[in-house]
């Protein structure tokens, strides 16, 4: 079975917080963010809106990309989101059929 790895950015309703993470199960991880079971920053700021993601075939590449994004500026993250998702829509709604 071929496993994929995801680097993702979630935000809250007002886009005040941009959280970058990595996972091998994007649906489960976003569900955790949406339901407040992901501890820390995302639960504190109710950051459960998936606004950006990238797919990788190996965990090392995904982790390296996550570190690169986390060390970058907010402005660079905003450019990535706007390139993929100019309206800052919650991508999980269409991907997983959630509202």
TrEMBL record:
Region (Disordered): 66-99
Protein name as catalogued: Endonuclease
PANTHER family for this protein: BSL5627 PROTEIN, UPF0213 PROTEIN YHBQ
Recorded superkingdom: Bacteria
One Pfam family this sequence matches: GIY-YIG
Keywords from the UniProt entry: Endonuclease, Hydrolase, Nuclease
Originating organism: Desulfoferula mesophila
Family recorded in the similarity comment: Belongs to the UPF0213 family.
Stretches assigned to the GIY-YIG domain: 3-79
Gene3D superfamilies: GIY-YIG endonuclease (3.40.1440.10)
GO MF entries: endonuclease activity
PROSITE patterns in alphabetical order: GIY_YIG
InterPro entries: GIY-YIG_endonuc (IPR000305), GIY-YIG_endonuc_sf (IPR035901), UPF0213_domain (IPR050190)
């Amino acid at each position: 079975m071929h496993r994929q790895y995801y680097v993702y950015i979630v935000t809250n309703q007002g886009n005040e917080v941009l959280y970058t993470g990595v996972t091998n199960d994007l649906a489960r991880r976003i569900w955790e963010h949406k339901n407040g079971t992901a501890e820390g920053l995302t639960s504190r700021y109710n950051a459960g809106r998936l606004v950006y993601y990238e797919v990788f075939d190996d965990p090392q590449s995904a982790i390296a990309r996550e570190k690169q994004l986390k060390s970058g500026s907010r402005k660079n993250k905003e450019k990535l989101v706007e390139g993929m998702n100019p309206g800052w829509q919650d991508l999980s709604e269409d991907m997983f059929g959630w509202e």
